[in-house]
UniProtKB/TrEMBL annotation:
The chain crosses the membrane at residues 20-39, 51-69, 120-140. The lineage of its organism: Bacteria, Pseudomonadati, Bacteroidota, Saprospiria, Saprospirales. It comes from the Bacteria. Keywords: Membrane, Transmembrane, Transmembrane helix. This is Uncharacterized protein.
């Protein structure tokens, strides 16, 4: 009779998001979703010193995109998929340069991979938080 074994956290290397999950979550949820995925991977890879930098960059990029569209009117006429695509490309570049090789080693050691559906949920969460933040910024700007 097979027995179920539970991996304890000391012997299990951890869970990470792969490129497809990063693409999906970033395209749906923008820079904040990308920040969450990259920060989670850094935490799993024991590189916690990079997490604050990721979050500051994600928030700064979100604010930059919000104000860029507001202050450069021709950018408001871009197709809606362009800013998410550019954000996903940037997040993918960061992933490739800072995490990919270590993630491959972690997976070879038995690390787990989050599903793409979890990436979708992260994207939806990031989109909701971004939308709420942009509404607050707009209300502040309008003087409410």
């Amino acid at each position: 009779m097979p027995t179920n074994t539970v991996l304890d956290s000391a012997s299990h290397p951890g869970w990470v998001y792969l490129e497809k999950s990063l693409w999906i979550s970033t395209f749906i949820g923008g820079p904040l979703a990308a920040g969450y995925v990259l920060a989670t991977n850094f935490r799993t890879l024991d590189r916690a010193e990079r997490i604050p930098q990721v979050w500051v960059s994600a928030v700064a990029l979100a604010l930059f995109l919000y104000y860029l569209v507001d202050f450069v009117p021709p950018l408001a006429d871009l197709p809606g998929f362009v800013p998410p695509l550019l954000t996903a490309l940037l997040a993918h570049y960061v992933f490739q340069r800072t995490q990919l090789s270590e993630i491959n080693v972690l997976i070879d050691r038995g690390g787990g991979v989050y599903s793409k559906w979890r990436g979708v949920l992260v994207g939806i969460g990031g989109g909701v938080v971004s939308f709420a933040g942009f509404v607050v910024l707009e209300l502040i700007r309008e003087g409410y």
